[in-house]
Amino acid sequence: MRRGGLLLALYAHSLTLALGALFALSFTLHAVGGVRHYNAEQLAHGETPITLLQYLSTSAVWFESLQNWQSEFLALGVMLVLSIVLRQQGSPASKPVAAPHHETGHA
Fold first, then answer.
1. Per-residue pLDDT for 25 more than 80?
2. What is the rounded distance in angstroms from the CA atom of residue 79 to the CA atom of residue 90?
3. Which helix (H) or strand (E) holds 16?
4. What is the domain extent for residue 10?
């Protein structure tokens, strides 16, 4: 890490890369499972199955994905806002609960 270069750049952005990879993996797994379910429904109704790329162009995959991610983003947003507004006694990442702003330098 001391020499810099590619390893340092990857490490500097490792959280973004990890979360992006998890998002891509979860979306891919959702799409693969969704197309299997969609094709099973198609076959049950005597229609022809479609490919994964065709499934990605349907409104079903986007509706399901965005509906799922909406609840995830809501939960994360609430935790983020609450972590800014509220404090927990004894938390190492928080200023002391009873300390006034002028003592800690935090607004």
1. yes
2. 18
3. helix 14-44
4. 5-87
